[in-house]
Design brief:
The complex is a heterodimer of chains A (114) and B (112). Chain A is an all-beta fold and 114 residues long. Chain A is built from no helices and eleven strands. Chain A is 0% helix and 50% strand. Chain B is built from no helices and twelve strands. Classes of the chains: A mainly beta (114), B mainly beta (112). At the A-B interface, strand 5, strand 9 and strand 10 of A face strand 5, strand 6, strand 10 and strand 11 of B.
Chain lengths: 114, 112
């Protein structure tokens, strides 16, 4: 196990609702990245937080937002949910935000939007 | 553009057979990092290996081995004497600045 935890495990929402997903980093890691993995696809990068600041963002609309807290845990918020938001959401922590660091992934939250 | 291609969507083998998973990448960077992850049905991505662009030495870890060839932009993964527990989706990824770019994955089914 990586020591990265995510909650909840599963979630069902309806279109237009808002959702918050949570992630706790591996001990000592100050960088968290979030990915969306649609069924049958590879994970797609959403954004990364380093020391509580957004460090980079992928091609996701502003209704995908995040936070990182002083203890380096993190939240992913999605507003105005759409059917296509149904996916596995993975968070990954790494020691620092450097390109040399390996990212360690949590078990994911499976979101279903009806 | 940065890109990772895993052309094999699904592979089925019988237990104890050897199997190679292909990965081809594209990048203009001279320094880059490549990774392999395993995703069992539980969903968690399990880190297997990291390789930087300056180290083309092949690596072996137990039944796993990796062949990195810059000349063909490939980073292939071989499982020797496959086991049922190896059944999973395997992803190759390229580290580009702060993010990973993943391939679409190869589903490996090892039949008893």
């Amino acid at each position: 196990e990586t020591g990265v935890t995510q909650s909840p495990t599963h979630l069902i929402k309806t279109r237009g609702q808002q959702v918050t997903l949570r992630c706790s980093s591996q001990s000592g890691h100050n960088t968290v990245s979030w990915y969306q993995q649609a069924l049958g696809q590879g994970p797609q990068f959403i954004f990364q937080y380093y020391r509580e600041e957004e460090n980079g963002r992928g091609n996701f609309p502003p209704r995908f937002s995040g936070l990182q807290f002083p203890n380096y845990s993190s939240e992913l918020n999605v507003n105005a949910l759409e059917l296509d938001d149904s996916a596995l959401y993975l968070c990954a922590s790494s020691l620092e935000g450097r390109s040399t660091d390996t990212q360690y992934f949590g078990p994911g939250t499976r979101l279903t939007v009806l | 553009a940065q890109k990772v291609t895993q052309a094999q969507t699904e592979i089925s083998v019988v237990e104890k057979e050897d199997v190679t998973l292909d990965c081809v990448y594209e990048t203009r960077d001279t320094t880059y990092y490549l990774f392999w992850y395993k995703q069992p049905p539980s969903g968690e991505l399990v880190f297997l290996i990291r390789r930087n662009s300056f180290d083309e030495q092949n690596e072996i870890s137990g039944r796993y081995s990796w062949n990195f060839q810059k000349s063909t932009s490939s980073f292939n993964f071989t499982i020797t004497a496959s086991q049922v527990v190896d059944s999973a989706v395997y992803f190759c990824a390229l580290r580009f600045t702060y993010k990973y770019i993943f391939g679409t994955g190869t589903r490996l089914k090892v039949l008893a």
